[in-house]
Amino acid sequence: MDSKSSDTVMEPREADRLPSSASSAVKIVIVGGFGVGKTTLVRSVSEIRPLTTEETMTQASTGIDDLAGVEHKSATTVAMDFGRISLNEELVLYLFGTPGQQRFWFLWNGLFEGALGAVVLVDTRRLEVSFDVIGRLEEAGVPFVIAVNAFPDAASYPTEELRSALDLPTSVPIVVCDARRRESSRDVLISLMHHLRDHTLTAEPG
Amino acid sequence: MSENGHGWEESGPERLYVITGGREADAAQSRLDLVTLIVSREEPGVGMQPELAAILRICRSPLSVAEISAYLALPSSATGVLLDDLLTDGRVEAREPASSLPDIALIEAVIDGLQKL
Prior knowledge:
The complex is a heterodimer.
Chain A: E1 24-32, H1 38-45, E2 51-60, E3 73-86, E4 91-99, H2 108-112, E5 117-122, H3 128-140, E6 144-149, H4 159-165, E7 174-177, H5 182-203
Parallel strand pairs in A: 1-4, 1-5, 5-6, 6-7
Antiparallel strand pairs in A: 2-3, 3-4
Helix pairs in contact in A: 1-5
Chain B: H1 13-20, E1 37-40, H2 50-58, E2 63-64, H3 65-72, H4 76-88, E3 92-95, H5 104-115
Antiparallel strand pairs in B: 1-2, 1-3
Helix pairs in contact in B: 3-4
GO molecular function (chain A): GTP binding; hydrolase activity
Organism (chain A): Streptomyces qinglanensis
Protein name (chain A): Signal recognition particle receptor subunit beta, a GTPase
């Protein structure tokens, strides 16, 4: 039945198919610097092997720091890994990992639209990437939690020390996780949803 | 023609131009989110553009726009152009994402689902 022309197209494995009752989807964005464990977190909770979608943007490259002074048009291609969790027969959750550096923010336009919220995945050895991301999320009004990926060789800091280093209000939860572990990554997502619930309850009029 | 038999790169702009008929996806206009679920309404027809046939085949069960892009190895903007065609012709249906302003019931449903993991 399947023709030869399908050779170039990967197909979902039987086990990766959603039930036909799947009627709507939600998304959560995992944002952080390179190597912080975004894909690890996605993989540990996803029911499918993470997939990759490539996004491109053609732009004049002036103003991009590492090409300062060089002006030419370039197509930027960035790969985003994502995974999926079937929450029930109707509702599906997608998790997208996206780089936090400012030069990748063009990816964020469609990505955060309609997203439930974001997990800012942090490596305490490289906190600086998180500053801009946090500022941007606050500006955009996207609910988020901070998840510290506990790398074995990174020093652990008390949460309150991190909070002041990141200049975060007490309303933003900070959780420590091991992105390699399914339950730990799941708990990060649950923290985000609890935060979102509080946020929604507070915002509701009356 | 180049030595590997390809006149262009697999994901180069020329390939995208051919697949989408030269149309550019207007991200602002697209009605499709990365997590809009697409479901086929018919089987691929003989002589159909391979990418469209592939979409109809893999969407026999619901798939998000992001998954379709990944399986087709196309940027989601190009996938959106193809899906718009299929939607206009009624060959696929789109199931919109849950509301962007989530209500408590939706949030609770997500929490319940996560707790079962």
